Amino acid sequence: MAKETLTIIDNRTGKSYEIPITHGTIPAMKLREIKVSEDDFGLMSYDPAYQNTASTISRITYIDGERGILEYRGYPIEELAEHSTFLEVAWLLLNGELPTKEELESFQREVTLHTMVHENMREFIEGFRYDAHPMGILISTIAALSTFYPEAKNVSDPANRRLQIIRLIAKVPTLAAYAYRHRRGLPIVYPDNDLSYAGNFLNMMFKMTELKYKPNPVVERALDVLFILHADHEQNCSTSTMRIVGSSKADPYSALAAAAAALSGPLHGGANEQVIHMLRQIGSKDRIPEFIKKVKAGETKLMGFGHRVYKNYDPRAKVIKRLAYEVFDAVGKNPLIDIAVEVERIALEDDYFIKRKLYPNVDFYSGLIYEAMGIPLDMMTVLFAIGRTPGWLAQWEEMHNDPEQKIARPRQVYLGPARRPFVPIGERKKG
Ligand code: ACO
Fold first, then answer.
1. How many domains does the chain have?
2. Is residue 346 in some structural domain?
3. Is there a domain that residue 238 lies in?
4. What is the pLDDT of residues 278-310, one digit of tens each?
5. Which atom of ligand 1 is closest in space to residue 237's alpha carbon?
């Protein structure tokens, strides 16, 4: 039988090294044994942007980017989107199995009981400028929650971790809705415990003078499905941030605020907002070829296309595209959909995109649904953050239970100046 090892010959010394292969990886620390002399630091791998580095063993989310497969704990995303609810998926991500009826009911009750936030948070939010971006408010208020729960820093206590996990899943939508109401100059709306997780979020966003807010059931279900689709995506930029910050044993509010900050960038969760800007800028179907030309010339990117891992159609984009038409039937069509569908058609027939395996990602159609639901552009990444919260927390919990993890600390290749004496300011020359 072939050996599960890798033999490396160091041509500098002629020495040969046998390195074990486990689960298709080699342990990077083994490379350090490869030295030219006793005092040599040893070999490292150079991997900017971690394109080929597995930073953890995980049992939560599986992606096969070549085949367009996404599974949470072994369950295909399409089946979860069809049959499950967001809180059921949150339980699955956190606990590894689907909940029983009793477990789910008790989890729903627990989350519902924790949706309120301290009244001081209102004053904190009022301190933001009237036009503050809600993602900035969300990131800041999540971080600020740690000051309300100082015990959260006891991250080695599993029961304490669990309580903070429930609080975060419950309170992130409340903070998100408060951020929106502040931006609109509207009074905040308290959570309504009679409603579902998604229904209550819509209530906190959109309730006006009516005594009881009744969510549109199609919109409520669509939002729940969107949350499911965003719930986890293994070691992406924001999840790795959650783990890196958490690895220093920071409290989960600080770690989750950092993860949300990573998500806010236009190359990550900010892309859905950029897609709408792009579709508006294109404006009409006849202007698409001109726009595609600019993309191919490298002048701009086709936002919502391409993915570090998917080199095939993002399975979430398929579900979202279908969902979009259901929402449009219920609340009216977003006219940008026709442009989006045509952009996709043209791009998928174009050599530039085919060669680079660029397909629509989760963000290509999600913004269109949000817009049809009345959710403004600058709230779209905020909604992504609500959906991703259980995933970040499941990954954080897994990290705390992993005996192989330590404080994260990448290495560098230093190519800066060699040691030199300090130059007094009067003797310095420009350039
Ligand atoms: N439009 C045009 N060209 C693209 C795009 C795009 N959206 N994405 C990648 N390319 C091109 C690159 O220019 C590059 O071409 P080259 O080989 O001629 O230089 C090639 O495809 C490979 O791209 P990379 O940048 O190496 O791919 P990477 O894996 O680093 O980037 C990323 C992935 C950041 C998602 C990229 O595809 C992108 O910027 N997409 C647009 C932003 C977006 O939609 N982000 C959301 C991602 S999903 C999420 O985070 C939830």
1. 3
2. yes
3. yes
4. 999 999 999 999 999 999 999 999 999 999 899
5. 50
- Condensed to tens digits (0 to 9), the pLDDT of residues 198-224 reads 999 999 999 999 999 999 999 999 999
Identify the domain containing residue 299 by its residue range. Answer: 271-373
Q: Report which protein residue has its CA nearest ligand 1's atom 38.
A: 306
Nearest residue (by CA) to ligand 1, atom 44, is 304
Q: Whose CA is nearest to atom 40 of ligand 1?
A: 306
Q: For a ligand 1 pocket test, name from 308, 312, 351 the mutation site with the most ligand atoms within 8 angstroms of its C-beta.
A: 308
Could you tell me the distance, in angstroms and rounded to a whole number, from the CA of residue 306 to the centre of ligand 1? 5
Query: Which of 229, 296, 305 is the best mutation target for the ligand 1 pocket, counting ligand atoms within 8 Å of the beta carbon and taking the most?
Result: 305
| Span 91-122, pLDDT tens digits | 999 999 999 999 999 999 999 999 999 999 99
Please give the Cα distance from 173 to 294 (Å, whole number).
38
In angstroms, the CA 249 to CA 27 distance is 24
Dist. CA 298 → ligand 1 center (Å)? 11
| Residue bearing the CA closest to ligand 1, atom 12 | 356
CATH code for the domain in which residue 332 is found? 1.10.230.10
Q: CA geometry: angle at 122 spanning 120 and 126, to 5°?
A: 120
Does 280 lie in the same domain as 235? no
For residue 242, the model assigns a pLDDT of: 98
Amino acid identity of residue 81, one-letter, is: A
- Please list the active-site residues: 268, 307, 363
Residues 6+ apart with CB under 8 A from 94: 165, 390, 393, 394, 397
Distance CA 134, CA 201 (A): 15
Q: How far apart are CA 136 and CA 151, in angstroms?
A: 25
